[in-house]
């Protein structure tokens, strides 16, 4: 193609002030736009028909009046009963478990027992075997040999050592 086929004209000077040159026909573009709109309308109509066919029509239920509130008139008596049961539980002696191995004592008595212990009030009640007594006790056990001899030693001698009690 040669450059001579195209005329270069300033913008807005496409013959008689039209935005396109006179050789471009707008009818196919109008038909294409109309077809797109027709397709869009058909899709909307088809989807609407499917919606109205598949979704059941539900009528709104008739309005109902709310039931009258049922106010409890014995709230004060109920509160007093609950507080009485709680006071009896805190002020009485009873078993704390089903095995009858723990007894719950009145809270006033428990506070006096703890106050009598003084600085040792929060010490464990029973010694747990193998439990550490403080943060440094684990390190102390590692550094000092145990005074209790090991109970289960293996019968096989260590490599490089002769068995002393061998026949």
What is the secondary structure topology, with strand pairs?
Elements: H1 27-54, H2 75-91, E1 94-95, E2 103-104, H3 107-117, H4 137-143
Antiparallel strand pairs: 1-2
Task: Outline the structure in words.
By secondary structure, the protein is an all-alpha fold. The chain has a domain at 93-122. 38% of the residues lie in helices and 2% in strands. The protein has helices at 27-54, 75-91, 107-117, 137-143, and strands at 94-95, 103-104. Strands 1-2 form a two-stranded antiparallel ribbon. A hairpin with a 7-residue loop joins β1 (94-95) and β2. It is elongated and about 110 Å long.
Short précis:
By secondary structure, the protein is mainly alpha-helical. Helix content is 38%, strand content 2%. The longest helix is centred in the N-terminal third of the chain and has 28 residues, at 27-54.
